[in-house]
Amino acid sequence: MARLAQTAGLTDVQQEILSTVRDFVDKEIIPVATELEHRDEYPQAIVDGLRELGLFGLMIPEEYGGLGESLLTYALCVEEIARGWMSVSGIINTHFIVAYMLKQHGTQEQKEHFLPRMAAGDIRGAFSMSEPGLGSDVSAITSKAVQDGDEYVLNGQKMWLTNGGTSSLVAVLVRSDEGHPEGTAPHKSMTTFLVEKEPGFGEVRPGLTIPGKIDKMGYKGVDTTELIMDGLRIPADRVLGGVTGRGFYQMMDGVEVGRVNVAARGCGVAQRAFELGVQYAQQRHTFGKAIAQHQAIQFKLAEMATKVEAAHAMMVNAARKKDSGERNDLEAGMAKYLASEYCKEVVEDAFRIHGGYGFSKEYEIERLYREAPMLLIGEGTAEIQKMIIGRRLLEEYRFQG
Prior knowledge:
By secondary structure, this protein is of the alpha+beta class. It has helices spanning 12-38, 44-53, 71-84, 86-105, 108-119, 247-283, 295-323, 329-354, 364-377, 382-396; strands at 125-128, 144-148, 151-162, 169-175, 190-196, 202-205, 208-210, 224-235, 285-286, 289-290. The strands form 3 sheets. Strands 2-3-8-7-6 form a 5-stranded antiparallel beta sheet, covered by helices on one side.
């Protein structure tokens, strides 16, 4: 086993789960990832394999048919999967954010209705906050829900929906001004709706359209879509938690899990880039010796390995903080920020080590070079993370003059 990115204090069960996932990645994902990515093909066989391993129920409590594992276990599994192909980790990330939100905030009826089928992989989850006219400014959401008897009518357009086509349950954040006095802060008049739909594209239920896949530079295979609501009717019992006005807080709780996930993905991609770089450096010869014997390359490998190790440590810390029940927005923001930035740098260094061959689609590093930028913007840009970190630091270190 490689020395880098090891995690101390894991239980035997955690180690067994990780070993199983690592073997699956080495045998079932890495050999086919680049070919599937070049075709932008959904990795159905890989997803079916993850379902057989029980990973769709990894964090879902045992009483609902899941494995009841911690966020740390989940993050370490994501790290392994992203090492194989980052897109696959995205498929399970959105599923788990929705499952987590249901576990933490759903009514008992909602938990009993959705979680067992989510644990089995029969229901695939996706969540939707962003819109065409906004990114990280969630308070500017314009999609709206208006109550009509025992239903709500939803209208609006959402953007950047991972698993938009393949999912059958979408947690959608919209404005719900009714019942909230005029002048209420925007984040206090938002509601999360649990929207059930058929997988696929086009009109997937009356009033709900998934237009098709967005063509992307990287992060291929997984379907990223828009979501258009035009008179979409949702029963009142599909308001997450049963009460309107709590959607912003529910989503932000889920996003903290998502930020740990993105940090884990950055760690996994960086690890793979380091593996490819250190391997190629020992195979490629210049001036009569392997380029790994040149001091310039050794310095680069040393920097890459240190970044892999540092990012992994921060990701593990953020996951353990969340598992402890403590507030972890500071740690999650730091981990997401550092891991995504370091991932970009490690991938670029591996690309440089490959020289001209790194520019060829025959080499895996070319795919990683296109995938890494997505982590810089997913679950909040670096600038947003620094705002979160800065505000939290000022709370913790408030001057008492």
